[in-house]
């Protein structure tokens, strides 16, 4: 039977999808606080840079996949885009909807979707964004093909994701930090050490920047690009449907 990695463990595809769902249901309520603690608040700067790269425009239809708690969608809605926030996990979407209500952010559409098999028609979005979500997808090539399918001709794809820093020594230092400290922070703050251990393992197993850029091209995108941040600890990948 075909097996895939759930962190460092080999499981069936169905089991991975189920267990990833369990992870994000568990961490949903503390997700944003943990992001601040794990990144020292830098995730906010990375997301600002990401949205600046996307360049959302007034009236554009944008699909924010794995949009969860709304961080990216809120930034794009502020620029006048019509954003559909989609996530496979309803618990994450529920947190995002509560945050939107508290901030009085209007005009967002919230929809449970599987990135590997979207319910949307072909060629209806001007842009597709996914931030810190693609590495948790069971079949990444399928998700990239679906992103390509739902984009209009001339539409753009952007992905913000952890990768591997190419700065000498820094990557190894971050590996030690993430392996030993992040699960402990998860245990202390979110009362969930195992979920944060999985998230660390999923980062380590994600393809390197050039390999992921090649995958985007194989899905049909042209003019693919990658912008490393902190030497590639985080990277913004892009591509165009032409």
UniProtKB/TrEMBL annotation:
Question: What is the source species?
Answer: Sphingomonas caseinilyticus
- Gene name tied to this protein: ubiE
Family matches, as PANTHER family: 2-METHOXY-6-POLYPRENYL-1,4-BENZOQUINOL METHYLASE, MITOCHONDRIAL, METHYLTRANSFERASE
Record protein name field: Ubiquinone/menaquinone biosynthesis C-methyltransferase UbiE
Q: Which InterPro entries does the record cross-reference, listed alphabetically?
A: SAM-dependent_MTases_sf, UbiE/COQ5_MeTrFase, UbiE/COQ5_MeTrFase_CS
Tell whether Amino-acid biosynthesis is among the UniProt keywords. Answer: no
Q: What class of enzyme is it?
A: transferase
**Gene3D superfamilies given in the database record:** Vaccinia Virus protein VP39
Q: In which family does this protein belong, per the annotation?
A: Belongs to the class I-like SAM-binding methyltransferase superfamily. MenG/UbiE family.
A single GO molecular-function term is: methyltransferase activity
Q: Which SUPFAM superfamilies match?
A: S-adenosyl-L-methionine-dependent methyltransferases
Report the protein's function.
Methyltransferase required for the conversion of demethylmenaquinol (DMKH2) to menaquinol (MKH2) and the conversion of 2-polyprenyl-6-methoxy-1,4-benzoquinol (DDMQH2) to 2-polyprenyl-3-methyl-6-methoxy-1,4-benzoquinol (DMQH2).
